[in-house]
Design a protein that fits this description.
heterodimer; A: 312 residues; mainly alpha; 68% helix; B: 14 helices
Amino acid sequence: MSATTTTPPRAPAAKRATDTRRTLEKGPSGWLAVPALAFFMLFAILPLLGVLFLSFTRWDGLGEIKLDGLSSWNTVLADPVTGNALLVTAKIMFFSFIVQAPISLLLGVFTAASQKYRAALAVLYFVPLLLSSAAVAIAFKALLDPNFGLGPGLGLPLLAQDWLGNSDLVLFVVVFVIAWQFVPFHTLIYQGGVRQIPASLYEAAQIDGAGRIQQFFNITLPQLKYTMITSSTLMVVGSLAYFDLVFVLTAGGPGYSTRLLPLHMYLTGFKANDMGAASALGVILVVIGLALALFLQRLGGKNRNASQLEGA
Amino acid sequence: MASTTQLPTTPAALPQPVTTRRRPPKLGRSRPNFLGGLGGWLWLAIIIVPVYYVVITSLKNQAGFFTSNPMLPPAEPTLDNYKLVLENDFAKYFTNSLIVTVGSVVPALFVAFMAAYAIVRGKGKFLSWTNNVFLLGLAIPLHATIIPIYWMITKAHMYDTLLALILPSIAFAIPVSVLILSNFMRDVPNELFESMRLDGCSDWAMMWRLALPMTKPAVITVGIYNALHVWNGFLFPLILTQSPDTRVLPLSLWTFQGEFSVNIPAVLASVVLATLPLLVIYVVARRQLLSGLTAGFSK
């Protein structure tokens, strides 16, 4: 790297030295990257093209795959359940973002501080990270039971609702359980971000007489810009992957009230045995995910990657 | 990609970030933050109540579950539920999960490490293109590919085998592993590589004798991160396996729930048992695990 600045050769005597420099600069062979690339191409990029191809076919998952033009797309686009799935996905994305982002940010700041009790609390905060989505869903299913769960346990009739059977409430229950499972991860990201803020900024602010709230808004928040973009990207794109949690918790119900796009895709493909339509839904999922990721990266500006690496 | 921007201006600029990285800012030493503390304890309650409920309920017998207060611990705790779960092939599912996890994480680490080494140390269009492919992989909701993956796996006659779970899991672990490992590998001073090169070392030797020891914490971290994902994975087992012989733990929770739907304490005991191995790792290697989860994102 630093060798590039010293390459201009002057005398023939120095030629041999520059030759070894050259081989140095060439670095390792690209072949080292080939196994990883091959795996990824075979099981991620190729299927990505496959999902586009299959969306133009008819296939029940077992028999022959037959080319079928746009009929799967026509089915999917005419089906009101698709529109509903998009709406449910958008709602869950929106609500889970506005619930998770502020809580994670505040908890990240809270746990990054040096007090001992905060470190002790943080140990417990991160326990949900260990649980599988299936485990979380099963636990909440039991906890939210109107007869044997939290409501009767605390003697609070308000909490003894039929949380998962009421189509007006269930979406918010799903958002809550998602937050319970994923806030710890984002807290961890914010905690890391806060710990990278130079302490000198806070010292200077304290000398200037800035209070805690002023410090939060004038130092912490602006300094966390890139952390916020990273966390938000993962949150928003990640909300397209809340499959297993919702599958076990509600299976998309009651009715279609929590039938997210990925769940709709799974049920169309593997339960209704219409792989063509499910693939069309998969394509929609990819397009939305990519568009969102690109949009959020734009927000952060072009130099984001470079500056993040340098700031590491 | 942005190889021009990361050229250090002076050699001394290289090790500097390491020293400034982990210094917690001393937030308001003046007076305690009561509001913050209150919020902190409140969130603790939100996190702990479900965990507490699962544990106490798993120790109740079925009659106790229906009659006692759901939020109070059982008067006579019993381990019968755990016995029931263990008798229902829990060991087999546990072994399957272990095989799939180790079988995915070790090869994924191996190939990702080589790729990260090539991307950081090497030059050229191919490597920067490769890096971009992996970065793209992070942005795509890979769940969308389950149908073609199911198609490929059935075509290859691997449906309902553990290998069917391992192969895509390796592929899906690669992008994030390469990203994190290459972030750490950039911190290894260039001078060390140069001096080894002058001693006549090949890249293969430098990779294992210099890069690996220097990035060992990162490798462990990435390993734990991937292991957690594979261990808890649900979607691939759901679509690529079918029989009890290939069932992994997360899927077994779901089927337990179907089989013992009335026996909630037993279902919750299976939740505890499936989480226990990770809890042990958390207690033993908390720092590694947590840094594994954030590495590459907030670094």
